[in-house]
Amino acid sequence: MLNLCDLSYHPASTPQPILQSLNLQLGPQQLGLVIGPSGSGKTTLLEILAGLAYSTAGEVRWRDQVLTPEALQQLAGLVFQFPERHFCGHNVLEELRLGHPELSKNHIVTALESVGLGHLSFTSEPHALSGGQQRRLALAVQLIRQPYLLLLDEPTAGLDWSMRRQLITLLKKLKKDWSLLIVTHDAAELIELADCAWKLDHGVLTPYALPSAAEMTA
Ligand SMILES: Nc1ncnc2c1ncn2[C@@H]1O[C@H](COP(=O)(O)OP(=O)(O)OP(=O)(O)O)[C@@H](O)[C@H]1O
């Protein structure tokens, strides 16, 4: 269970806090959605939860334990917006083994299968894959580390309709095993996956009422 307690981020260089006293709870195998316009603080929130930035007040807890940024780096896996821009392996095997040269090929096959890329050759070039395959590979890069919490920044951005649908089906499958927190400016297609949602506006987080199943099919 992820628990944010009055989490704030107010660097000395900004007159207003970027995140203001955020409270949020996300249970195991839940998918939470944070919806906010550009500049509302979504990426900053994910960077703090991934242990890449330091909050200036408040706490991040996992079950009742307060987590340091170093512990968050172990606990969470962050998939950046347009993750394919950060690929640096020459082939799929290198990409998945970056930082983890000890990983066995069996382990790698399992990670690829979990994102529907079990058929992919280890020697395929990451940059030569389709947009949807690249997003799946970026997910596998994080899943291979077995994080407790998967953080996704605008996972469907820039994909065409059919690749977005495939990714949504995959996220639906992944939430059976992982807790996921997704940030987006456009919740339209992701809302059907969400167990809980919040709006982020100028760094202020408020609960967002999810439509009922009947409203979604209407
Ligand atoms: N360390 C920092 N110092 C100063 N300003 C910062 C810092 N980190 C983030 N900001 C500012 O905080 C605001 C929120 O940025 P952030 O990238 O988190 O927003 P976002 O909701 O993810 O936007 P987008 O959807 O456009 O990516 C921006 O105005 C950004 O310039």
UniProtKB/TrEMBL annotation:
Keywords, ordered alphabetically: ATP-binding, Nucleotide-binding, Transport
Query: What Gene Ontology molecular function terms does this protein carry?
Result: ATP binding; ATP hydrolysis activity; ATPase-coupled transmembrane transporter activity
Identify the domain of life: Bacteria
Q: Which family does it belong to?
A: Belongs to the ABC transporter superfamily.
Q: Which SUPFAM superfamilies match?
A: P-loop containing nucleoside triphosphate hydrolases (SSF52540)
Record protein name field:
Energy-coupling factor ABC transporter ATP-binding protein
* GO cellular component term, pick one: ATP-binding cassette (ABC) transporter complex
